[in-house]
Amino acid sequence: MSEIRLDAHVIDYVLIAVYFLFVLGVGWFARRGVSSSIEFFLSGRSLPAWVTGLAFISANLGAVEVMGMSATGAQFGLPTMHYFWIGAVPAMLFLGVVMMPFYYGSKVRSVPEFMRMRFGTGAHLVNALSFASAQVLIAGVNLYLLGTIVNRLLGWPLWVGLIVAAGIVLAYITLGGLSAAIYNEVLQFFVIVAALLPLTLIGLHRVGGWGGLTERISNDGMLGAEQLSTWPGEQLSGFNNPVLSVIGIVFGLGFVLSFGYWTTNFVEVQRAMASKNITAARMTPIIGAFPKMFIPFIVVIPGMIAAVLVTNWPTTSISTTYTQGEEAAAASGVSYNDALLLLMRDVLPNGLLGVAMAGLLAAFMAGMAANISAFNTVVSYDLWQQYVVKNKPDDYYLRVGRWATVAACVIAIFTALIASNFSNLMDYLQTLFGFFNAPLFATFILGMFWRRMTPTAGWVGLVLGTSSAVFVFILSETGVIDLPGQGTAFVAAGAAFVVDIVVSVIVSLVTRPKPVHELKGLVYSETPKADLVDPEEKSLPIWRRPVPMALLGLVLVIALNIIFA
């Protein structure tokens, strides 16, 4: 790690210090508005759509977006765009148009609570426990990268960086709850863009623009010309057959993993739930979808630039590292995750380096804070209040939420050590999403559109769906199946989805469903259409209405897929 130290000067440290003062100041300011649990966990459901929309996308701008996607861009090239244009935007639009009316209209405080209302305590307990586990694991990814940045900047040991980084996030979440997280996420969104846009432009200038980058990728034998088009993306999917690759990306990533993450992940949905009305809640993911389309240009492209521009990797050359894969990277002391840091080290002058460092810190703090704020809500409302201590005053659960925040930050320090074992964090994260999100989406989508689905089917489908994803992962780890890239994650997610659907249908046919009158607001066919929209929506200008804006987003993302195909 010492060989990848960033040459920061006083001006860089000053910029970073100013940023942290703003972050802690926002937490202190938000503290004045926290007097109840609903204000701590859901911001009192009072925020406008533009705030929650930017927070929605910023909450996802953590390790997955910045380091993970730049690493995958360096490894696979333009097929990485699928994580945005196939694996995010369509699901975000679907969430805003179809699913948010159920979440917001039912006045639930979390996604697991919606599961309890639809399927009862069995599915609720399984979902709450698996979700809480997933959040501390994913928070560990963001915390690991936070600690890595501190190590690169100050030379501190990784464990010291982990503790310091966890302490900063703990401070402002404990003070201001979700409001502090959301307002910081809005600030962090602009800081991240201000950091990555200059890095991309300067990097492109160094390689001779877009034409120079494509020429060097085509001729240098590092990534290969096939990495200059998004389809069929065989190296990304792990399938050698182009047809199977397209099916794997569209079904595994674009449907199961994507819809599972964006439509049922409380980390994201929580931001929309903090909106002031149902129209603002629906607009939250739709607003977020527009910057989401263009973020890969400042995240994926820098990874590709690093793959051809950086030449002084420790012990080995960039071409050796990227063409021989992870074993060569491990031998050199670097991994794909270092691509962005090495590019920053080599192309950014002091001052801009400080902005870039603040941007990376902002990204990882936004991601970790999102995980922690979702974790404390589910632990307090869905586990502690539901199953441990019931019927206590509201301020008791507010205290529980703050202690849950402390516990999550401590646990994340240890889960960060798990993340450190993966040279490409996207492999790790896609594995987690396959375990937790794919079966949950199957249960949600079937239960929301099929009133016959029973409470027993809800929890049995979840358990067996998750088990099937774990089984595929074990087969991969033991060498029974061998798919390069992230093909294993796609197959595991597909298996979890299919098994969950099949099991849920079979179990539903032999068990008793809930009475129809209990399904209002939970099942599409039993919910009056008037309950799913704001009666004043028609009077709003077109740019504030969910359906027209979602259609515009869909047209744009289809156009991007065609242009870069």
Automatic annotation (TrEMBL):
Belongs to the sodium:solute symporter (SSF) (TC 2.A.21) family. This is SSS family solute:Na+ symporter. Keywords: Membrane, Transmembrane, Transmembrane helix. InterPro entries: Na/Glc_symporter_sf, Na/solute_symporter. Its main location: membrane. It is found in: Membrane. GO terms for cellular component: plasma membrane. It is a multi-pass membrane protein. PANTHER family: SODIUM_GLUCOSE COTRANSPORTER 4, SOLUTE CARRIER FAMILY 5. GO terms for molecular function: D-glucose:sodium symporter activity. The chain crosses the membrane at residues 13-30, 42-63, 83-104, 125-147, 153-174, 186-204, 243-264, 285-310, 352-379, 400-422, 428-450, 457-476, 488-510, 547-564.
